[in-house]
Amino acid sequence: MQLPCYGTKRVPHSSQRIILASVFSSSLGVGLIFGFQPPLIALALSRAGISNLLIGAVIAATLISVILFGPLYPYAIARFGLKRCIVAGIGTASMILILMPAWPSVSVWFGLRFASGCALGLSWIASEVWMNSVSSKESRGAVMGIYGTIFSIGIITGPILLEFTGTRGWQPFAIGALCLALTLLPVILLRKAVGEAQESTSQHGLMGALKAAPVVMLAAIVAGLVESADLSLLPLYGMHAGFGERAALLLVTVFMAGNVVLQVPIGLLADRFGRRFMLGICALLSGIGPLLLQPLIHVPELLWPLLFVWGGTLYAFYSQGVALLGEEFPAAELPGANTVFVMVYCLGGAIGPTLGGLAMDSWPRAGLPSLLSAAALILLAGLMAARRQTL
What we know:
mainly alpha
């Protein structure tokens, strides 16, 4: 199998900016749906009397589809190109979202969520490959920081949009699909998909990508695990600590605010001091942060800054991990490497809430913080081991 090499040497600086702005727009849409669709589906199915287990299965279908169909994405990118994959992925997901209220049943919605996840996964990976391809080595960390910020803004905007659309009838599904489609317009309007295939090289197998950059893939699975566990269980942890429901949800809000604000500064520092170095700093801070959660849980003046910094450093695992892909893999191998990265990230996202819940059941006060801290410190240990091997 020959994959196209998405080189950057012939791409003018002005074209790079246009491409990045367009791909950032579509990434905002993907983030929006990731934040919009799960609570909409959960509330709609809950009103129908569906069990929490089945609701969780329907929501998890998206991650499952990316893991299962991930090996096909590099072939699709090679066959159709980056722009077409982004357009097809988001366009398909928009149409699926509109169709959902026509068949409000668990089995149908599981299938539609599965298909939507497969489509969005293709757009997700193609977007990251394109961003890496047109970014220079000197700016890649900042570019991925901006990407992480925009994606997170989309996720945060999703629940806010539900406040205006409501969660009943066709309206939220139609408006969500329209918003998703609108974020695709800048990509569609690109006159020419600059950065198309310039030469071809052989692709290593997906397992080859895993073996070639184990630390980068470790960052992916740790990112998926801790992010999903935090978003799912941090409010529950707060309520167990005596917080009311709204105050417990505020824990996640502040946590996500750190992600939005700190990704670009972390990316700029990564460009200056090295991505592995900054990833190690973030892993260290994310290992310390959870351990301070319990002693500071009732000290607001310290708790909120802790959550803000912890959230920002934690989400850098993903954004700077993607930047490292562009640094460590030739351009022709980026589709395969990025696919493995996203698959591993989704695997971590699928197991994170389960492990976190088990930790909380086994050790109510310290189980979740211990798990989150241990995961971050494992990443730090992996980075240190890799550094010793290169010395």
